[in-house]
Every structure is written in structure tokens, then in C-alpha cells.
Amino acid sequence: MYLHRLELRAIGPYPDRVVIDFAALAASGVFLLEGPTGSGKSTIIDAVVFALYGGLAGSDASSDRLHSQHADPAVEPFVELVFETGAGVFRVRRTPQHDRPKQRGTGTVRQNASATLSRLAGPGDPAGEPVSARAQEVGAEVTRIVGLDRAQFLQTVVLPQGEFARFLRAPGEDRRKLLQSLFGTEIYDRTADELAARRRAAAAEVDAADARVRDALARFTQASGTTDVDETTAPAVVAELRTQADDAAQERDVAAAAAVAAAEHERAVVDRVAALDRRRGLLARATALDDAAAAITVARSRLRTGELADRVAAVADGLDTAVARASAARDARDTLRGQHGVSDLDTAAERDRLTDVVASVRHLVSVAESLPDRRRVLAAAQTDAAALGEQLTTLDAALDARPADRARIVALSHAAAAAATDAEPAQRDVDAVQLLRDAHEALTAARARVATAEGVVTAARVVASSAVQAEQHLRERRIAGLAGELGAALRPGDACPVCGAVEHPAVATPQDDHPTPARIAEAADAARRAEQALADAATDLALERAEHDRLLIVVGDSHTDELEVRATAAAERLRVARAAASTVAEHERAKTEHDESTRLVEDERNAVASRRQVLLATTDAEHDRVAQDTDAVQTAIDTLAAELAQPDVADLTLPDAVVAADGRATALRAVAAAEDTLRTADAAVVERQAEVARVVADHDFPDVAAARAAVLDHATGAQLRDQVERADRERAVVDAGLAEPAVVAAAQDDSADVVLDPDAARAASAGAAEALDLATRAATTSADRATASERCAAELARAVDQRESTSARSRAVVRLADVAAGAPGHNTTGVTLGTYVLMRRFEDVVAAANDRLRTMLGGRFTLETSDERETGSRSRRTGLALAVRDHTTDTTRDPRSLSGGETFTVSLCLALGLADVVQAEAGGVSLGTLFVDEGFGTLDPETLDGVVDQLSRLTAGGRQVGIVSHVEELKQRIPERIAVRRTPGGGSHVTTTV
After folding, report:
1. Of all residues in the chain, what percent carry a pLDDT higher than 70?
2. Deepest in the core among 241, 502, 955, 966, taking most CB within 10 A?
3. DSSP per residue over 180-195, as a string?
4. Per-residue confidence at 123, pLDDT binned at 50, 70, 90?
5. Is 223:788 a contact under the CB 8 Å cutoff?
6. How far apart are alpha carbons 202 and 711 in whole angstroms?
7. b or e along 260-280 (b: 16 or more beta carbons within 10 Å of the residue's beta carbon)?
8. Smallest Cα–Cα separation from 350: which of 642, 658, 639, 668?
9. CB contact at 8 A, 358 and 666
10. What pLDDT is attached to residue 78?
């Protein structure tokens, strides 16, 4: 990660806007952040950490230090940071929680913290693409982008005051968490956790398999009905139960065969008895039918003759109806001809010719009806054209008179504008006079304030003098009674602070009113407060006097009476000028209104001329069309009059003529339809006559009268038909019954001397069925028990096989889980899988740190890793312990036993080694920026040279290194710097040197 730009305002000691270009500072690789102690160097680091994570660098730092106490409360504090990672360039902006003045009224309101994150196209992109505007989401997104949380960031990128050596002194568990997040080795811990989970799952599977075996054995015991059975004897029990079931099944089959035979014998006996009774009844019904056969034959013959006669009579009735229809059609035609005076001409052709003539003139009916209205409209249009001509003459006269009126208005406007030019000078005179009058009033008030301030200064001077004298008096009294104060503090055997003797023959005692240090401190505070009040009062008096002097210069030698006269004259000039300006506006409005009315008159004149021209053109054309339509209508009237044989057409209109022609065509149409109806009726009579002759001949009747005589009435026909149908149905039933196989077989039983006993057959069948039921229940019970035992035995065998398979499979999982978890007995080192991987990475970190440490502190120290549990650690994990090898004494030391300078140097090497290894990892976090906050003051010049040399080497790979220190020697070594200095007002400001 690389920092490009930091901007802040109203943060810590910085009330104003501060901009730091890290990209420019880090051009040479190393830059210095220097300034006096307490000036705000660490606040720059806090601002970077706050912008990224919303917290401060120091773990014990309060967030209240963010909002500057030196800035205006109304100014919004903020921190904005532009940084770059492998994911791109981003800008994050945060505002801390702070109190701001209320917009209305007095007091303050709490403003919540806010944050925004944007993706930039480049470091100089002013807009960017918004990513999030919620503080919680911004924090999570920054952690994802950077690849480090706040604690990890402070261990690898920013090493703040008081926390520089935390990684060196951290217990192994804390060191493991940091290394795991940096190197992304969580997968190994997840692998160990997954193995542990699989081990628990395997144990649960083994237990479940044992439980399934027990459950299967219990179900088998219940299904087989046995008590003393186990996994090995179950197959023998199943075989025995299956043998019993097979025997019971054979007994059931024998009983079933006997029951079937008894039931078949019962059905045969019952059927033979029923068939014998049915044959005897059918023979009796056949005899009765033979007796009535002659009467049925006669009835059948009469029905046949009646049906033929009905057919002939129906056709003859149709002929009579057709003759009647033809006569009626002839009478109707003759009547229509008489009504309409139609002779024997071709009515259809005459009808078609007249219809064509009417169709050729029908479209002129609407034209004829519209001619009167069109003539009236034409006359009205000619009248309107004449009126428009008169109106056009009037408008032309009005337009000729308007230019003179406009010239008069323009002349009045120019005169008023000349008078209004004095408005601006008059206004300046009025403003100047008013300023002098206000200055006179302010001068009077300033004299009063100066007098008041002088009184306050005099009173404050008296109070301050008294407070200083009181403090001096108390100090003098304490000095005078100092012997008693020292004597009161002595105890037997204590050395005298003056002479050193341990014997005190005459110890001085303090007076009762001897001043105590607390009283003197209170008096000193009172004196300081009084002096400060005097200084504040003197400052206020100086400000009031300066204002008084300024107002005297402004007023000069002017007097109030003279100003009143000047004000009156200037006001009158301004009134006159403004009145003239108002008149100018009125004249301009009048001119605008005159021009607008002129334009309206011109528009009206043009519209009237256009309307008149259109009317003249349309009336001429309409007059010609009316004449043409009148001629066409008259021609149509003459044509229709000739068709209707009406020579007098003077009073005949075209609509009347068309109506008369339509009536004549309708009459011809009716006569033609009547003639068509008559022709159709005559053809139908001829067809019916031929049909009657054919039907009489086909049915062997001499004539129609004979056929009508043979027709049966409805009652007689129904009676004969019912008699024949009942006899036919009875004969069919008897013949079918006698043909049935059972009835045919019953003939033998009827002729032989055979005895049939149905009751005995039923008793034998019932006994066989009861025996079958008992055998079936016994066989079913045995079969169910054997089947259930076989199923439970199969489940028991599968459960045993699964138990063996689960046990074999779980042994490998359990061993792997124990090795990965460092369980005793399986992993002699006690190192977990995740810790083992981190140990290898940690060894690389220690090796990288030792490469730098060998060139510092005279090569006295190196770091060593250890697989043993660290001293004082209650964690079960081991393998990340750290020790310091002292080559001078050839001893191994605890890192906490190092001195301040030694701790700083070793911690720095360890931090740099950690950064090197993290950046070298293919999937690790890129650490392009490193800040080191303080600690250089504990180093001697030689060690300082080695530390600075190691930091400079880091820049070879493009890394930025910022050193935060107030050590003077570093200022001489590093030219690029950020200088922080206090301001007289209590805040600080920043100067950047590149």
C-alpha cells in the first residue's frame, strides 16, 4: 500500500487546512516528520490511521483529541487520504464525531461521524466513483482493500509511540494471529478444524452404527418371537421360521383345494335345480303361443295393408295442397296487375330499366334539396364582402394617423430622460452625508466606551497590585518561618536538611499562621488571574481608543447642523431625479403600448383584407357551381317526367319525381314476384300428380279412393300393433330360454330319475370354507413372521457391515485429526498444523530481521525461534516463542530484558523483516509505506547510523519510509521533511520541504 496525499482540517492542534503530498516527499524514499515534543507529529499518524480505520494509532489514545480545540467550532473537522493498493487508487474521507453550534439559537448539537470511500482513475482524479458512504461499510471495505485490519496495520505499516516493540514482546498466541492474517494461512487452521470436525463426525458415525446394530437386533428379536438370540444365531432362527411357514402354506393349499371343490359342487346342484324349473315354465309359455298363432297372422296382414294405404293418402293430400296454392297464386297475380295497371308486358325487364333510370339521377336529390340554402349563403357572402370593404377603408385611415401620435410620445420621453440623469450623483451625495452622520453617532458611543474601559483598567490595576502584594507578603512570611517548617518535617533519627546532624536539641516550630505552600499557590493563581484580567482590560481599552481615533479621522471638521442641510438638499435632488425616471418609464410604457396597438391595427387590417379577398374568390366560384347544379336537376326532372308519362313538370320537384319513380318500380317488382310464385306453384302441381300416379301403382291400389278406404284409424292400428309386438316378444324370449345350455341339459334331469339336494351341498361347502380360513390364518401368521424375520435379519447384517466399514474408515480420519491438532501420543512435538506453517514463515521473518540486526549494535544480538511454550503462556499451542541471543555473554535472553535502545533496534529489525517477508509472499499484502514513530532518541550516534542505513535500504524496492522524530541529528541527515511548529495562538502549522 502507498500513500499519495493527506488533507486535514480542524484536527488535533491543526485549526487550519493542512495538505501533505506523500508522493513528492517519498521521491527519495525516506522523509522526516519532525517538530518539538507535543507539537502534533503523532497527530499526522493518527490522521492516517483514522482516515483508514476510524480509530487512532495509540491503543490508549482518546478519540476526543481528534477535533481541534483551536479551530472555530463552526468549522467541520475532516481527514481525507488518497492511497493506492493492488486493487486500485482510492480516496477515503472521514469526519469525527464533534459538537457544532446550533443553526438557530444558542448551544451546540452533536454531529455524528461520517465516512465516504471512492475509487479513483488516478491519484489526481478529482471526482472518482463512489464505493460507499456508510461508516461501517467503509471500514470493512478498507480492511478488504488494504488486506490488514487496524491492529495489523499498526504492527506492519505504522509503528506508533508506545507500541513499537509490541510484536517483539507479544505472546505467541497474539503473534500467531498477526502472522496468520498477514500470510493468509487461515486455510491450515480451517483444515485442522475440518479434520477435528470430521473426527467428531466419525466418532458419531461409529456410535450411530453401534446403535443401529442394537436397534436392528431388537427389531429381529421382536419379529422372530425369540428371546435368546444374537448376531451369529439370527440366520438359523430365520431358516427355522421359514420352514414352519412353508409347512403351513402347504396345509393351506390342501384346504383351499377342498373348499373350491365343495363350492363348485354346491353351485352345480343349485344351477341344475334352477335350470329344470326354468325349462318347465318355458314349455308352458310356448304352448300358449301356439294356440294364438292364427289370430296374430290376421292382425299382422291388416297392419301391412293399412301402412301402404297411409303412404298413398299422404301423397294424395300433398297434391290437393299444391292445387290450392297454385289457384291462390293466380288470383294474387291478377289482383296486383289490376291494382297497378300492368298489362301483359315483360314486368321484370320494365322494372330493371326504370330502376337504372332512378339510380342515374338519385345522387341529384341532395343537390336539389341544398340549392335554396346555397343561394341564401351566396347572397350573405356577397353582403359580407361589401361590409369588409368598408371596414378596410376605415382601418387604412386609422393607420395613416398613428405616426404623428408616436412622435409626440417619443419627444416627452427624451425630455424626462434628460432630467433623470441626475439620480446617480444625487444618490452618492445622500450616501456620503449618511455615512458622516453615522460616524458622528458612532464617535459619541466610542467616547463613552473609552471612558468605561479606562475605569475598568484602573480598577483592574488596583486589584492586580493588591494580589501581587499579597502573594509577595505570603512568600516573605514563609521564608521568615522556614526554620519552623523544616523542624516540623523532622523525625527522630532523620538528618537535618541544613546541617546534616541527626540530633536536634532545639527544633524550631512553625507559627500558627505560617503560610502553607497551598496558600501561596492560591495567592499566586489569584495574582496571575488579576494580572491577566488587567492585561485583558488594557487590550480592550487600546481597541476602543483605536476605534475612537479612526472615527475622528472619518468625521474630520464636519458638523451635524451642516450635515442636516446637505442631507435635505441631496434628498430633494434625488426625489426630483427619481420622479423624472418614473416619468421616463411611463413614457416608455406608453410608447410600447402605442406600438403594440399599431401592430394590432395592422394585423386587423391584414386579416380583414385577407377575409374579403377569400370571400370574393369563393362567391364567384360558388355562383358558377349553383348554376351548373340547377341545370343538372332540371334535366333529371324532365327525364323522370317522361318515364312517368307526366308532361306537365312545372310544379314537379326532383325528390317527388324520384319518389314516384321508386313507387312505380316497387309495383313492377311486386307483380314480377307474383308471376314467379305462380310459375313455381304450377310446376309443383305437375310434380305431385306424377307422384300420386306412381305411388298408387306401386302399392297395388286401383285408385286413390280405394287407398283412402283401406286406411286404419289410430285406435285400431295401435291395438293390432300391440297384439303383434307382444306375441313376437314372447316367442323370442321362449325360444332363447329353451336354447340355453343349462336348460338343454335340464332335459336329461327331467327325463331321468335324478334326486338333487341343494341343502346338503351348502352344508358341505360351508365346512370346507371354515377349514380353509383356519389354515389361511395359520399360514399367514407363519409367513409374516418369517418375512419380518428375514427383513430384520438383512437389516441386522447391513448394520453390522456398516459398523465395520465405519470403524475402518474413521481410524484414518481420527489419526489425521490428532496429528493436525498436536494431540499427545500422535504428535510428539505438540505443534498444530497452522502453527507449523506459521513457524516456517516466522523463521523467514526472524532470518530477515537478523540480516539487519547483525549490522547494528556491533552484531551483539540475534533473534532465535523456539518450539517450546513461552514462559507465562497458558496457551496449549507452541512453536512461536521468541528469544534474543546475546553473543557477548553467550546467553539466551527474554526480549523484555533488553534496554530501551536495544528494544527499539531489535523491534525495528523485526518489523522490517516482517514487512520484507510479507511483501515477498506471492499472495501476501504489499507494504509500500512504513512509518516509524519515535524511539530514535534512545540511540547513540553509531547505532543511529546503522538504523538510518537500514531504513534507506528499504527504498530500493520503491518503498516509502517516514521517520517521526525530534532528534536534531536526523534533520541534518534527511532533507525531505514535514516540519511541525506551534503557533502563537496555541495551535500548530505544517511546512513541507521537498
Report:
1. 84
2. 241
3. HHHHTTHHHHHHHHHH
4. confident
5. yes
6. 107
7. eebbebbeebeebbebbebbe
8. 668
9. no
10. 94
Over residues 682-720, the pLDDT tens digits come to: 887 788 778 777 777 777 777 777 777 777 777 877 777
Task: Report, as an integer, the average pLDDT of 246-250.
Answer: 86
Instruction: Indicate the residue type of 108.
Output: T
Cell of 674: 307474383
d(CA 876, CA 477): 68
DSSP label at 63? G
Write the CB contacts of 727 (distance below 8 Å, at least 6 apart in sequence): 289, 292, 296
Reduce the DSSP state of residue 664 to 3 states and report it.
helix
C-alpha cell at 426: 444625487
**CB burial of residue 855 (10 Å; 0-12, 13-18, 19+):** middle
85 by Cβ neighbours in 10 Å (0-12 / 13-18 / 19+) ranks as middle
CA dist 103 and 109 (Å) reads 9
Cell of 168: 517483539
Let me know: does 803 contact 209? Beta carbons within 8 Å: yes
Give the SS3 label for residue 111.
strand
Q: Which three cell numbers stand for residue 600?
A: 394590432
Residues 520/474, Cβ–Cβ less than 8 Å: yes
Encode pLDDT of 286-321 as tens digits: 788 778 777 777 777 777 777 777 777 777 777 778
What phi, psi does 962 have (nearest 5°)? -110, 125
| Residue 1 pLDDT greater than 60, yes or no | yes
| Mean pLDDT value of segment 123-127 | 84
Three-state SS for 598?
A: helix
Per 3-state DSSP, the chain is made up of helix, strand and coil in percentages (nearest 5) of 70, 10, 20
Question: Quick check: 952 and 983 in contact, CB under 8 A?
Answer: no
Q: Are 545 and 452 in contact (CB under 8 A)?
A: no
Strand-pair category, 881-886 with 861-866:
antiparallel
Grid coordinates in use for 947? 538504523
Rounded to an integer, what distance in angstroms lies between the CA atom of residue 937 and that of residue 683? 143
pLDDT of residue 872: 47
328 CA to centre of own chain:
88
Decide: helix, strand or coil at residue 606.
Answer: helix
Q: Report the percentage of the chain scoring pLDDT > 90.
A: 5
For residue 963, the SS3 value is strand
State how far the Cα of 870 lies from the Cα of 691, in Å rounded to an integer.
134
The dihedral over CA atoms of 928, 934, 939, 940, expressed in degrees to the nearest 10, equals: 100
Strands of the sheet containing 881-886, edge to edge, are 861-866, 881-886, 891-893
DSSP per-residue letters across 862-878? EEEEESSPPTT---S--
d(C-alpha 563, C-alpha 567), whole Å: 6
Amino acid in position 929 = T
pLDDT at 924: 54
Give the SS3 label for residue 505. coil
Cβ neighbours for 139, distance < 8 A, ≥ 6 positions apart = 53, 54, 115
For the chain, the first-to-last Cα distance in angstroms comes to 22
Are β-strands 977-982 and 988-993 bridged in parallel, bridged antiparallel, or unpaired?
Answer: antiparallel
Q: Coil, helix or strand for 992?
A: strand
Helix (H) or strand (E) holding 528: helix 517-555
Label residues 889-916 b or e (16+ Cβ within 10 Å = b).
Answer: eeeeeebeebeebbbbbbbbbbbbbbbb
Main-chain phi, psi angles of 94, to 5 degrees: -130, 145
CB-count burial class (<10 Å; 0-12, 13-18, 19+) for 352 = middle
Flag whether pLDDT at 9 surpasses 90.
Answer: yes
Specify burial of residue 451 (Cβ count, 10 A radius: 0-12, 13-18, 19+): exposed
